[in-house]
Design brief:
With 379 residues, this protein is of the alpha/beta class. Helices cover 31% and strands 26% of the residues. It contains eleven helices and 22 strands. A six-stranded mixed beta sheet has the order 5-2-1-9-20-19. A four-stranded parallel beta sheet has the order 13-12-11-17, with helices on one face. A three-stranded antiparallel beta sheet has the order 6-7-8. It is globular. 42% of the residues are buried.
């Protein structure tokens, strides 16, 4: 009897999981006892943390994009055909073309999407860097910026929570190299009562911002933007002016999750240790798609993928498993063009940023090049 595994989503989480399963279950896959089908909406795979470097012309766009089929084990069946319905009760995924994929085990790795349209004026009056086109647009805007106030404001929730900090620190060095620090004021806002959701990271950030003269405000939740007046207003009743506005648009999960009734705003209810969908032992949820209150970041997807692949391998080959996810997240945080810090944490251990160093910066740059090995399940 054939065991059918369907993976919906071809981002980091889905790709790593698929490749690990193909390796772990090699005999079963090659003999036809296990079939792995991946459904994705894009023939290309993008290393999304690379957008930050595209903004500052540190990498070319083509350096962070690969063909999805080239990253997958040849025994994995790839279907570039967006999923439009996930029916857990009947164990089937329906795609845009009308094709139906039955499964015994389902891995939902549909990721997240930006929804700038949810805040009036944001789409028309702001820059961001969470997709390729927008990263290139921001790069051009920074190149042509001659001075004034750059305001950075957050929508919530959003993925990669340290990326806005990295952008701010890198902008500081960018204008320093151009001898423009006396002409530019960087101003950072955050929606809660600190500068990052993780308190140790927030405390560290305050010291770095004050040392560099970067202004900041907390309890600033974007409500609307007036591009004509260069003004942003908050839900708290505050108003800030700017010469350039950079925002992190709010995020939602994939549309197919909402359309299938799997979760509000595209987030799927997930057991934080077993990574199974609540009420469905044969449905796993990983990466940005989960509703687990933990960073939606690449390393989160990586470590969760390891766990899900090992759990499924043990269940299929041995009938059961005790492997669980401990909440591990690891982040290298750029603090400029030539230094970075490092944090790691899990469910039981809080983060503690290390002093920035050139070595950590080069480690991050090194990993950026090695990511493709991670996607293939090698690193």
């Amino acid at each position: 009897m054939t065991t059918r595994i369907v993976i919906v989503g071809g981002g980091s989480a889905g790709t790593i999981t698929a490749n690990l399963l193909a390796r772990n279950l090699y005999k079963e896959v090659t003999s036809g006892k296990v079939v792995i089908n991946m459904i994705t909406d894009n023939p290309d795979h993008t290393y999304q943390p690379g957008y930050l470097y595209v903004v500052f012309d540190k990498v070319r766009p083509d350096e962070i994009v690969r063909k999805q089929k080239d990253l997958l084990d040849p025994h994995i069946n790839l279907f570039v055909d967006p999923a439009v319905k996930i029916d857990r009760d009947n164990r089937v995924v329906v795609t845009k073309s009308g094709r139906q994929f039955d499964y015994d085990y389902l891995v939902i790795a549909t990721g997240s999407r930006i929804v700038p349209e949810d805040i009036p004026g944001l789409k028309e009056g702001s820059y961001w860097f969470y997709d390729m086109q927008s990263a290139l647009r921001l790069r051009e805007a920074l190149m042509n910026f001659n001075g004034g106030k750059i305001l950075l404001s957050m929508g919530i929730p959003h993925k990669c929570p340290v990326a806005p900090l990295e952008l701010t620190f890198m902008m500081y060095d960018y204008f320093k190299e151009r001898n423009m620090l006396d002409k530019v004021q960087l101003h950072y806002t955050y929606p809660i009562n600190r500068l990052h959701v993780l308190e140790p990271v927030s405390d560290w950030t305050i010291g770095e911002f004050e040392r560099k003269g970067i202004k900041y405000d907390t309890f600033f939740n974007m409500e609307e933007i007036d591009p004509a007046k260069n003004v942003i207003r908050s839900m708290e009743g505050d108003e800030l002016g700017y010469d350039m506005l950079i925002t992190i648009p709010p995020h939602k999960g994939a549309q197919v999750i909402e359309d299938s009734g799997l979760g509000k705003n595209g987030w799927v209810s997930t057991d934080r240790r077993k990574l199974i969908n609540t009420g469905y032992d044969n449905v796993y949820v990983i990466g940005d798609t989960t509703d687990i209150p933990i960073s939606k970041a690449g390393s989160t997807a990586h470590f969760q993928s390891d766990v899900v692949a090992e759990r499924l391998t043990s269940i299929i080959s041995q009938g059961d498993t005790v492997i669980e996810y401990d909440g591990k997240v690891v982040c290298f945080v750029e603090t400029g063009f030539d230094e970075a810090t490092y944090i790691w944490f899990n469910y039981n251990t809080p983060p503690k940023p290390t002093p920035p160093s050139r070595m950590l910066h080069w480690m991050k740059l090194g990993y950026n090049r090695l990511y493709w090995l991670t996607a293939r399940g090698i690193l």
